Amino acid sequence: MTPREASQAPLEFGGPLGVTAMLLLLPATMFHLLLAARSGPARLLGPPAYLPGLEELWSPRVLLLLFIWLGLQVALYLLPARKVAEGLELKDKNRLRYPINGNHIYDFFLGRELNPRLGSFDFKYFCELRPGLIGWVVINLALLMREAELRGSPSLAMWLVNGFQLLYVGDALWYEESVLTTMDIIHDGFGFMLAFGDLAWVPFTYSLQAQFLLYHPQPLGMPMALLICLIKAIGYYIFRGANSQKNTFRKNPSDPSVAGLETIPTATGRQLLVSGWWGMVRHPNYLGDLIMALAWSLPCGVSHLLPYFYLLYFTALLVHREARDEQQCLRKYGRAWQEYCQRVPYRILPYVY
Predict the structure, then answer these.
(1) pLDDT (tens digit, 9 = 90+) per residue, 255-311?
(2) Which of 94, 98, 227, 346 is buried deepest, with most CB atoms within 10 A?
(3) Cα–Cα–Cα angle for 223, 169, 243, rounded to 5 degrees
(4) Long-range contacts of 31-37 (CB under 8 A, 24+ apart)
């Protein structure tokens, strides 16, 4: 893509006006969720029950703990005894050029630099998986331990939420190399969207179910718990199966597990999978993700909308993301992508969407 073509590319997220609104609304939404989860009414919609004073929002001890946490994660990231994986080869053999439109707010939100680095330390890759994602699990565990202090033992609902989300984070860390092929890494710059999302939004809003359960305990019988576990297992089976099939095919199309899959050749020399998981819908991994999100929320009961915020938000996020992905694939693969869309008409949910 030439600089001229980059400057003429359509702006994402509603352009400067859209990202300005998101710069204000995302932090405000996160604080609203945190306040609602610990309030009596636990209202997702409507004003928070109370607003904390400045003394509640500032603590030198907490700030020190935050820096210690980030320092620990940096030290673990820089350990010499770690696997080094190569990402997708870019057109310039080094890194993808990110379109610069000249709007400071838009650039601040999306990020001007695709891969900001200090030596071998990649800021975006580090933030994508480590401090926020692991911090999410630590917050969940702290909430579980607090519930044990208050009520003698953690509830079954709290155990399920912790277990489900621990599995999700563990999967992301175990298959860490696969993040190199995600849109966040290969397309989006490292700006406010990813920095705030990775370091604040993920640990504090993704732990919303555990926060809700601490302040609003929910009874959960064994039959319902088993049903929820089944839903989680189905979601994870789809999610992991689709992602593993895609990653195996990208690494080695001759691998016996994917060698028999039907493909569509493209002008770039790459092949598009049109059978297996990727012959059912265009984004089967998103379908698995949404089913798992439902399983995280169900232990919280159905009396409040608040625990289902993640499911609603994630549905909107993935629908928006697949639309961005479709546009990029159309520009990249052209007629081959059009043929794929004809062969696989449904995007996420078979026979529905």
Answers:
(1) 888 888 888 888 877 888 888 888 889 999 999 999 999 999 999 998 889 999 999
(2) 98
(3) 90
(4) 33/204, 33/205, 33/208, 33/306, 33/309, 34/204, 34/211, 36/306, 37/208, 37/211, 37/212, 37/215, 37/306
Q: Is the pTM of this model over 0.85?
A: no
Q: How far is Cα of residue 311 from the mean position of the Cα atoms in its chain? A: 12
* Per-residue pLDDT tens digits for 142-194: 999 999 999 889 999 999 999 999 999 999 888 887 777 777 777 778 888 88
Asked if residue 190 lies in contact with residue 113, where contact means CB atoms within 8 angstroms, the answer is yes
Burial class (CB in 10 A: 0-12, 13-18, 19+), 315: middle
Contact 209, 298 (CB under 8 A): no
Helix (H, G, I), strand (E, B) or coil at 309: helix
Give the C-alpha distances (Å, rounded to integers) separating 174 from 131, 183, 186, 199, 217. Answer: 16, 19, 20, 20, 32
Q: Where are the beta strands (DSSP E) in 82-162?
A: 117-118, 121-122
Q: How many CB atoms lie within 10 A of CB 71?
A: 11
Rounded CA-CA distance 27/42 in Å is 18
Supply 1's token pair. Answer: 């893509």
Element containing residue 271 per DSSP (H, E) = strand 271-273
